[in-house]
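quick q for whoever's on today - can somebody do inverse folding on this one?? i tried earlier but teh output was garbage lol. tokens:
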């Protein structure tokens, strides 16, 4: 079993969490994480990281989707309940979703019974923020700030003997080392690596501000959100389908600022720390499946784990566990196991 060689492509939250679960499953395997982007160069780094899977998030079946979401919540919640929580960037936070006209926005069957608290907002709570809010909900959840989590999980992997390799992979044929299996966690890069036309970028832009008085998250209409993290507050947002623009757009900035300050007026005095743009890898359905390709005359076993859209941080642990399960199935006939 010590001769088992596993390659993980991608070092965002999906790739690193997958590598972690692989190491837990195959303790003596040789595991390499291969990527050309790490930490603040990843899309994961842009995300606010609030555990709130959208109702549109979709795996191959409702049952599998629910399993991914449940497993993910328990993974993050377990970290939050350890002394390493602050180092790992995992915390607990509560807040509201308000809407002036869309009652479905405040319902979410995936998490209503999973989270410790999920209830309708009271009439008094609907008046907390300026606006004509008709519907609302309050819930308590976990948040993972990847500027902490990615270095933390990388350090854990390296202590376990996992190798981190800086290399850009644009084709499976570029992989020189003979791996027994490859886990493909390349996010949007899988569009070109796998020639996957179902995978499209969903551009997002956020502002990171210093507002330590904000302890509660708020969501409003039109993709407006205010999410307090470990050391900053994330203001958003936008979802621009099939946009590859990684530059900060001043009009998006003005729109985000105006919407968030209207929702929580005290933000007008907040200091701007950073502006970030990320391209969410959106795919319907999220691709977590096994495949065998013939590359350079030899069979290459691959498990894909990509296409999470705006829910990569939220659902990374669940899809990673599922990907490891698929990898185990692919390797089940391997004498090295």
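ok took a stab at it. sequence:
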């Amino acid at each position: 079993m010590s001769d088992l060689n596993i390659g993980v492509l991608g070092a965002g939250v999906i790739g690193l969490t997958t590598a972690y679960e692989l190491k837990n499953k195959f303790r003596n395997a040789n595991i390499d994480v291969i990527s050309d982007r790490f930490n603040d160069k990843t899309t994961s780094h842009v995300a606010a990281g609030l555990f709130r899977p959208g109702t549109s998030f979709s795996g191959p079946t409702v049952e599998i989707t629910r399993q991914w979401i449940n497993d993910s919540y328990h993974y993050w919640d377990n970290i939050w309940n350890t002394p390493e929580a602050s180092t790992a960037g995992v915390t607990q936070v509560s807040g509201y979703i308000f809407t002036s006209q869309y009652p479905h926005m405040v319902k979410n069957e995936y998490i209503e019974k999973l989270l410790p608290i999920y209830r309708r907002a009271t009439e008094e709570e609907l008046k907390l923020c300026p606006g004509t809010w008709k519907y609302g909900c309050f819930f308590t959840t976990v948040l993972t700030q990847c500027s902490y989590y990615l270095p933390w999980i990388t350090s854990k992997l390296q202590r376990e003997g996992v190798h981190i390799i800086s290399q850009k992979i644009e084709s499976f044929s570029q992989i020189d080392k003979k791996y027994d299996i490859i886990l493909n966690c390349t996010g949007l890069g899988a569009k070109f690596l796998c020639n996957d036309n179902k995978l499209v970028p969903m551009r997002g832009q956020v502002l990171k501000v210093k507002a330590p008085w904000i302890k509660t998250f708020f969501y409003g209409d039109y993709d407006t959100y205010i999410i307090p993290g470990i050391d900053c507050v994330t203001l958003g947002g936008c979802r621009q389908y099939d946009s590859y623009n990684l530059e900060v757009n001043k009009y998006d900035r003005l729109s985000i600022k105006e919407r968030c300050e209207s929702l929580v007026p005290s933000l007008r005095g907040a200091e701007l720390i950073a502006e970030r743009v990320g391209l969410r890898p959106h795919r319907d359905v999220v691709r977590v499946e096994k495949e065998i390709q013939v590359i350079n005359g030899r069979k290459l076993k691959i498990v894909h784990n990509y296409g999470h859209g705006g829910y990569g941080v939220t659902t990374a642990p669940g899809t990673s566990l599922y990907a490891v399960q698929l990898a185990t199935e692919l390797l089940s006939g391997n004498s090295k196991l």
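fwiw The mean pLDDT is 96. also Residues 312-331 form the longest helix (20 residues). so keep that in mind when u check it
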